[in-house]
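Researcher: Going back to the complex we discussed earlier. I've cleaned up the inputs and rechecked each line, so this should be the final set. Can you rerun the prediction on the complete assembly and write out the structure?
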Amino acid sequence: MRRAFTVLMGVALGFALSRIGFTSWDEVRRMFTFESPRLLLAFALAVALSGVGWVVVRRVSRTPPRWSPRPVHRGTVLGGLLFGVGWALSGACPAIALVQLGEGHLLALLTLAGIFAGNWLYSVVHERWFRWAAASCTDD
Amino acid sequence: MVALERQFEGHAWMIPVSLALGGVLVGFGTRMAGGCTSGHGLCGVSRLQKGSLLATLMFFASGVGTALLLEALL
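Model: Rerun complete. Updated structure for the full complex:
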């Protein structure tokens, strides 16, 4: 049941991202050059709705999800900056690249290959040079 | 992705390079920052996590910078 719900949410997200235009390299470019506020507004709305949903779920659920302030870890600033450059160059973030593939844009395979390579490269670099604990999206 | 061809008009070879290199930076940056636009931007910010807010600001700052640079150069 849980799995079916997750799949459904995934499909809904992919559909929404595709429909709004997050998968379009040009739309992303227009967001970054301030030519068009569409994607930024959509993003802001999504964040706002997510925030509201979070509060509601916490109030209503019998097993509310925990929240604790997470420490700002060391790689945040540089990692974020590198990510942004990559985002502008490829027009995609990890989820978007997958949706692009779903749309039939085979070029997205290049982006995905890059993402996997970058991920692997980070493991190597982190092992050799970074002394901090690598965080992940699933940390709690 | 039609505008991709327009942006790199006359330098079509740059398209696969841009996508692949961009991908590498996205993969690397995501691991280093501990999240991407979904993890930090959507989940983290909506839960008012300071690190996510910082990460998201960084995403957009360099995204804007890079896009404007591309506009100026090409």
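Model: Worth noting: Chain B has a mean pLDDT of 91.
Researcher: Good, that matches what I expected from the previous run.
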